[in-house]
Specification:
This protein is mostly helical. The chain is 71% helix and 0% strand.
């Protein structure tokens, strides 16, 4: 199986393959969880924060410019939400 970069996945999502967003969520889920727990230290709040961060990222995906890695961009969204 060919591994796509995050940027390639983003381009495919923007091109209509929206189900691929799940691949990005799976890739970054553990990382975002750890970061959010370190900020808010409340498991229930972390789940809500992560869900909101993913929704915001999906809605703003067209604004991802690639000036940083996708993971950094997504992490910044999560930190702002936390």
């Amino acid at each position: 199986m060919i591994q796509l970069s995050d940027e390639e996945i983003v381009n495919k999502i923007l091109g209509g393959e929206t189900a691929l967003f799940e691949a990005l969520m799976r890739k970054y889920n553990e990382r975002l969880y750890r970061i959010s727990v370190s900020i808010v230290n409340d498991g229930d709040a972390v789940e809500d924060i992560m869900q909101t961060a993913y929704i915001n990222a999906y809605r703003q995906l067209v604004n991802f410019e690639g000036r940083s890695s996708f993971g950094t961009w997504l992490t910044r969204i999560l930190i702002n939400e936390s």
